[in-house]
Amino acid sequence: MSKELIVSKIENGTVIDHIPAGRALMVLRVLGITGREGLRIALVMNVDSRKLGKKDIVKIEGRELTPEEVNIISAVAPTATINIVKNFEVIKKFKVSPPEVIRGRFKCRNPMCITNAPREPVVPTFYLVKREPPLFVCAYCGRYHELSDLI
Ligand code: CTP
Asked: Which residues bind Zn(2+)?
């Protein structure tokens, strides 16, 4: 028997599904979405999931997120599936994976790193060195960071 949807389907946009239960707000924060952009967003938290037991879902109307934009959420939602919806149909589906390179979003945790020096026009850059669990290295000072350290 099909159960009723808690939130209706969207016409165009992105559905982030299979988020670990309770992490939907963190996902929005990591994506830098505050709600003040005027996008129509639906959050569903702690609903039943066959794969995860319980899960969260985020539906963003009118914005198609790219893998580059969403891969960063793998730090807080490694199980997430991204669904791109057009005319009510899922036209693309992919799983998040740690990004190969992160530029300009996070600060290096090494206070002596050149990227933390005042008035240095250096963009913090981190390269993925290991996938499981994800480990990044600062391109400037060589300090290793887990994704959760950066966020
Ligand atoms: N969805 C939506 N609006 C649409 C189409 C899909 O909000 N127009 C949502 C569904 O509610 C679901 C997710 O997008 O949360 C994925 O949809 P779909 O691929 O149809 O579902 P499943 O086959 O169950 O997905 P999966 O195999 O990834 O579990």
From this structure: 108, 113, 138, 141
Q: Specify the length of the chain in residues.
A: 151
State the pTM of this model.
Answer: 0.86
| Nearest by Cα to 5 from 35, 39, 48, 37 | 48
Q: Nearest CA to 72 among 128, 22, 122?
A: 128
Provide the 8-state DSSP code for 20.
E
Percent of the chain with pLDDT over 70: 97
CB 19 near ligand 1, within 6 Å? no
Q: Atom 23 in ligand 1: which residue has the minimum CA distance?
A: 90
Residue type, 85: V
| Nearest CA, atom 7, ligand 1 | 9
CATH of 101-150, one of 3.90.850.10, 3.40.50.1000, 2.30.30.20, 2.40.30.10: 2.30.30.20
**Which helix (H) or strand (E) is 94 found in, with range?**
strand 89-95
Nearest CA to ligand 1 atom 25: 17
55-76 per-position pLDDT tens digit: 999 999 999 999 888 998 988 8
**Rounded mean pLDDT of 98-114?**
92
